[in-house]
Design a protein that fits this description.
- The chain has 303 residues and is of the alpha/beta class.
- Helix content is 33%, strand content 23%.
- The strands form 6 sheets. Strands 4-1-3-2-5 form a 5-stranded mixed beta sheet. Strands 6-11-10-7-9 form a 5-stranded parallel beta sheet. It has a two-stranded antiparallel sheet with strand order 8-12.
- The model has no long low-confidence stretch (mean pLDDT 93).
- It folds into 3 domains: 90 residues, 2-Layer Sandwich (Alpha-Beta Plaits), CATH 3.30.70.100; 118 residues, Oxidized Rhodanese, domain 1; 54 residues, no CATH class.
- α1 runs antiparallel to α2.
- It is globular.
- It is built from 10 helices and 18 strands.
- The structure holds zinc ion (2 copies).
- One zinc ion (ZN) binds next to loops.
Length: 303
């Protein structure tokens, strides 16, 4: 049994502290056989990591002391295998990229609990706004939520300006684990929205208490699980498109090597019918002159 822990924490750090923390995180991860991706920067830390439950607990309590974290909210889920191959720490300007490094959350701002969120959904008076990307929204979202059809989070500020959502409306914002909303909240306040609330701990926290209620579909996650179900278990229906990395359920037979592969409907409408980027490249080359021999393609796929 592997435990998966998602976590973020905004805390001002100096460049020197960031570099030192990176070293210690790497040492700790190696000692405890923890895997995953950690983003750290001058504004704090953001990660999803995985490991056996006992070692992950050691890692969490070490980090809490090491960074002097106050009431850290670790969001845990479980899987049968690691959703990461390795452990990596990346130093970033922003630990979630809104494209506005000056907007740094200074503590909790208008968080509401899953219970309060659920009640507000039932009341049905507020605008529910999904701050995530289009491919995440596509496989699951809160019923009646609107979204900005964005490919990346840094598009959010401009889309908000153009949205026409009345400034006096109550707006409920949410994302996967909460970090994007911390920044979206500040941006919304800057643009004059006063009655904004964010779902504490995001969809992952809501599903823990209210599976199969306000949220419909599955929740996309940025690791090899692709998505989690209403019970926070790894998805069984979605895999990543070999060409664009978006979730898809569509299996195709490769037009080049005949192996099965996952190609999302967006890529299919672009005429892509190859099982992999490799085959797609060769198919493109082939349409010019050098169509690779099928045996060659088979060798590449080790069959
Ligand atoms: Zn695709
Ligand atoms: Zn192929």
């Amino acid at each position: 049994m592997i435990q998966i822990c998602a976590f973020y924490y905004f805390k001002p750090l100096t460049a020197q502290e960031v570099a030192q923390l990176k070293l210690e995180l790497e040492q700790m991860a190696e000692a405890q056989s923890v895997r995953g991706l950690v983003l750290i920067g001058r504004e704090g830390i953001n990660f999803t990591i995985s490991g056996p439950p006992t070692t992950l607990e050691i890692f969490k309590s070490w980090l809490t002391t090491r960074m002097n974290l106050k009431n850290p909210e670790f969001k845990d889920s479980f899987a049968e295998k690691h959703p990461f191959h390795v452990f990596r720490v990346k130093i970033k300007k922003e630990i979630v990229t809104l494209g506005k490094p000056d907007l740094v959350p200074q503590g909790p701002c208008n968080h509401i609990s899953p219970e309060e969120w659920h009640q507000k959904l039932l009341a049905g008076e507020a605008v529910v706004l999904d701050t995530r990307n289009d491919y995440e929204v596509e496989i699951g979202k809160f019923k009646d939520a609107i979204d900005f059809d964005i490919k990346e989070f840094h598009e959010f500020p401009k889309k908000l300006e153009e949205s026409g959502i009345a400034k006096e409306r109550e707006v409920l914002i949410y994302c996967t684990g909460g970090i994007r909303c911390e920044k979206a909240m500040l941006e919304m306040k800057n643009q004059g929205y006063e009655r904004v609330y964010q779902l504490d701990g995001g969809i992952l926290n809501y599903l823990k208490e209210y599976p199969r209620q306000g949220f419909e579909g599955e929740c996309f996650v940025f690791d090899y699980r692709v998505a989690v179900t209403q019970d926070l278990k790894p998805t069984e229906q979605y895999k990543l498109c070999a060409h664009c990395g978006q979730p898809s359920t569509t299996e195709v037979s490769c037009s080049l090597c005949t192996q099965p592969g996952i190609v999302c409907h967006h890529c299919q409408t672009q005429g892509i019918t190859a099982c992999s980027k490799n085959c797609a490249n060769h198919a493109r080359l082939g349409s010019n002159s050098r169509r690779p021999h099928l045996a060659e393609a088979r060798k590449r796929h080790r069959i």
